[in-house]
Amino acid sequence: MTIDLTRRTLLHLAGASSLSAAATAAALAEGTDDGAAGPTFANRTPIRIGMVTLRVRNLDLVTDYYRDAIGLAVMQRTATGARLGAGGVPLLDLMLRAGAATEAQNAAGLYHTAFLMPTRKDLARWLVHAATNKVPLSGFADHLVSESVYLDDPEGNGIEVYADRAPDSWKWDGGTVAMATDPLDIDGLLTLTNPRISNYAGAPDGLRIGHMHLRVGDLEQADRFYSGAIGFDPTRKRTGAAFLSSGRYHHHLGINVWQSAGAGPRDNAATGLVSFSLEVASEEMLQTQEQRLRRAGAPAETITSGIETADPWGTKVRLVKV
């Protein structure tokens, strides 16, 4: 009875009447064709996601949301910014710009930031936390390679919270990995924890950003930048979207034109994604990436520990050696 009550609560929070309806909603976040591991795999690859920077209008509201809803620890907070993370690792920078215009949904920019739980049990514990605290959800789904929950922060920045299945269970056909958007096994998840008690005191130390999903104006142009200039490998393509990764992860980056086809340069005064960092495994790789960027005619500015570039729509990408 308790498990069913929690499932009904989660469906209500997702605005769905059934698991299949919630999967349909989740399809809007990842696509509907054919989608323990964890950060120990996703963040051990030659290139992996580091930290994300967002521009926000209401710093206190958004900071408190990532602290309370997601469980990130506030590592630093000033009148104009906040840094949050897990296990002492910074994952999210928030920059205040009061009065900033809201970035349009048909503009290039952030589709969602995906927070990767270390284990399936951690995802289950977080689900009970979300239900207990009535955190609004926008969908949840089984992507074959992972299990995912979708939601939005108070300023409309998309979020995915997910756990990976074991990499040896992923189905590859050459360089293409099988993914889907199937109903999430909520009952199975909730058997891993006590659904009557929320014991999610905060994000587990191993939580990291597993992947980024971006809105872009043109898939081929985005692929030339993120694959040709940055060095990601394609792992899957479908109508209006593509997925790329390093080291045969299912995807460190999703790109789509579902809402943003033909989008021009981003407004760097609007809310939303400012930049994200890609951590690279060696100084030699960093030098190779800089050469690749310059050959592609992309910007390549030297910064502390690395290089800063920008995709064709103005989203900054920082390549850093860690």
From TrEMBL:
* InterPro entries, alphabetized: Glyas_Bleomycin-R_OHBP_Dase (IPR029068), Glyas_Fos-R_dOase_dom (IPR004360), TAT_signal (IPR006311), TPR_rpt (IPR019734), VOC_core (IPR037523)
Which segments does the entry list as coiled coil?
A: none
TPR repeat intervals: 203-236
Report the residue ranges that make up the VOC domain in this protein.
Answer: 48-164, 208-322
Give the superkingdom in one word: Bacteria
Q: Give the residue range of the signal peptide.
A: 1-25
Record carries keyword Amino-acid biosynthesis: no
What is a single Pfam family found in this protein's UniProt entry? Glyoxalase
SUPFAM superfamilies (alphabetical): Glyoxalase/Bleomycin resistance protein/Dihydroxybiphenyl dioxygenase (SSF54593)
* Keywords, ordered alphabetically: Signal, TPR repeat
Q: What is this protein called?
A: VOC family protein
Q: Which organism is it from?
A: Bradyrhizobium australiense
Q: What is the lineage of its organism?
A: Bacteria, Pseudomonadati, Pseudomonadota, Alphaproteobacteria, Hyphomicrobiales
